[in-house]
């Protein structure tokens, strides 16, 4: 209301039709100038239909817009809403999911091929009117309807095992974090992208609910096709290969409860199809046909694939590492390995010599997992702290009981346990046990934990500490040590500015 006084606008340029100077033929130059000035001023008042102001960053925006000849536009999130919904799928050459997309409806109108509720070209379902969501509750990210799949009916399909693996992959091949509402018990997800969120929600609605994620595993509630009952299945995460614009796909390597090692992938059809094995091409023609039809319907398409691995990938030791470690041990120099690798992988690197007894500290116990499922953080903390405390005490007793015998001990501790071992209440006990062992191996440790362990040894021992690493996640550890050595290896030159020495190999 500041611009309105006595029935008139205070600022003349808001009412150019009521200002004579704009239409004075005797003063054409000044009229043109005021027209130009008014255009610049009004450009700051441009608004879109949703009443949100469009911010003009330059004063000559209107002139530039008037000269546009070509427009280059992104699609996802620009022309589309970037609100992903699971609508249809093709599994083992069979198309599932019914309903028409907005693009299909528009094409039907243009072609005049018949009523909008015409039968879906890829399914045998009867005509369906309205939204494809379940009646009653609309679920964000899930817009799928097919009686052959829903309500556990997928177990009666000819390729039920493939359907099961398809939705297991949707539930497992992601980095989504489930969060349970304590009042309602409802599970929601924090995901990195809208399509990842849509996939994990859809898997839940079909009956494969991701309900827990830890540092090394994911747990699902899913239907057992043999018993027809809901069961809990845990998938051990061996490796996550995150999506990148170069790979155009994401993969995870998991170990199932049957001890199978599976590579699960989701990604662009151009990347997945060219990697199919001969056995995997059984449904290739039908799948390509469905992919083309889905794309024509305006759907964003992603392919799902898997491979059973006979063996894990080996991260080979550099030449001479084992011999180098042995010579350092003979010189009474103790080596502690601080790694992000899994415990099983890290144990077999040559640090733990033959005949060495292992003391393993872990929180991988049923009692702790049960508390984690309940979500009581205070109870988890207390139980975990007490468990690590007891294991440290038992380990020290074990070492002290054989002081007169020539037995070497190796201490192995995982990242979750290490977080409690470095607590102010336990770090002295941890250090006492670690110093009493010939070798120490900290697995699944974070960059911060690496630095804290290095600081603990440096401040509480009278010996000089040397840290050695090859990547950016080793920076904090190298800075904490008295001497930092950076390996000039595959991960490049991230350490160049903070190290004392940069050799090409460990040995």
From TrEMBL:
The biological process GO terms on file are: phospholipid translocation
A GO molecular function assigned to this protein is: metal ion binding
- Report membrane topology: Multi-pass membrane protein
Q: What class of enzyme is it?
A: translocase
Catalysed reaction, written as an equation:
ATP + H2O + phospholipidSide 1 = ADP + phosphate + phospholipidSide 2
Keywords (alphabetical) are: ATP-binding, Magnesium, Membrane, Metal-binding, Nucleotide-binding, Translocase, Transmembrane, Transmembrane helix
Q: What is its EC number?
A: 7.6.2.1
Q: What is its main location?
A: membrane
Name its cellular compartments.
Membrane
Can you cite an annotated GO cellular component? plasma membrane
Give the family per the record. Belongs to the cation transport ATPase (P-type) (TC 3.A.3) family. Type IV subfamily.
Specify the protein name. Answer: P-type phospholipid transporter
């Amino acid at each position: 209301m500041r611009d309105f006084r006595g029935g008139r606008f205070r600022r003349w340029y808001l009412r150019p039709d009521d200002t004579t100077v704009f239409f004075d033929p005797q003063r054409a130059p000044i009229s043109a100038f005021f027209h130009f000035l008014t255009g610049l001023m009004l450009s700051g008042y441009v608004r879109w239909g949703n009443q949100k102001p469009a911010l003009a960053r330059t004063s000559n925006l209107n002139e530039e817009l008037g000269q546009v000849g070509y427009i280059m536009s992104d699609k996802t999130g620009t022309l589309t809403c970037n609100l992903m919904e699971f609508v249809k799928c093709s599994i083992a050459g069979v198309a599932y999911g019914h309903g028409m997309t907005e693009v299909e409806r528009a094409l039907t109108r243009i072609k005049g091929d018949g009523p909008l509720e015409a039968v879906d070209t890829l399914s045998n379902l009867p005509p369906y009117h309205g939204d494809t969501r379940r009646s009653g509750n609309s679920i964000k990210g899930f817009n799928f309807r097919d009686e052959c799949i829903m309500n556990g009916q997928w177990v009666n399909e000819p390729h039920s095992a493939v359907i099961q693996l398809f939705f297991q992959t949707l539930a497992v091949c992601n980095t989504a974090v489930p969060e349970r509402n304590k009042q309602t018990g409802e599970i929601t997800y924090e995901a990195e992208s809208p399509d990842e969120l849509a996939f994990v929600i859809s898997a839940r609605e079909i009956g494969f609910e991701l309900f827990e994620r830890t540092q090394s595993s994911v747990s699902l509630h899913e239907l057992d096709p043999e018993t027809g009952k809901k069961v809990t299945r845990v998938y051990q995460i061996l490796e996550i290969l995150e999506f990148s614009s170069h790979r155009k796909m994401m993969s995870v390597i998991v170990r199932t409860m049957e001890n199978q090692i599976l590579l699960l992938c989701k990604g662009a059809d151009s990347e997945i199809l060219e990697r199919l094995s001969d056995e995997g091409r059984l449904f290739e023609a039908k799948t390509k046909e469905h992919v083309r039809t889905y794309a024509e319907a305006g759907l964003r398409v992603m392919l799902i694939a898997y491979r059973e691995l006979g063996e894990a990938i080996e991260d080979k030791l550099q030449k001479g590492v084992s011999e180098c470690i042995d010579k350092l041990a003979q010189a009474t120099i103790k080596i502690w390995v601080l790694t992000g690798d899994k415990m099983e992988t890290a144990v077999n690197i040559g640090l733990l010599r033959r005949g060495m007894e292992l003391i393993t500290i872990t929180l991988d116990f049923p009692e702790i997992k049960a508390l984690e499922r309940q979500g009581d953080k205070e109870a988890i903390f207390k139980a975990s702290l007490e468990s690590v405390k007891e294991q440290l005490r038992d380990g020290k007793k074990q070492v002290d009981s054989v002081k007169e015998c020539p037995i070497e001990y190796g201490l192995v501790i995982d990242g979750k346990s290490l977080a409690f071992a470095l607590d102010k209440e336990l770090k002295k006990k941890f250090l006492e046990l670690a110093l009493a062992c010939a070798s120490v191996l900290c697995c699944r440790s974070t960059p911060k934990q690496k630095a804290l362990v290095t600081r603990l040894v440096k401040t509480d021992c009278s010996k000089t500490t040397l840290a050695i690493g090859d990547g950016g996640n080793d920076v904090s550890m190298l800075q904490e040590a008295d001497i930092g050595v950076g390996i000039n290896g595959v991960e490049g030159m991230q350490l160049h500015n903070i190290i004392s020495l940069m050799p090409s190999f460990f040995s």
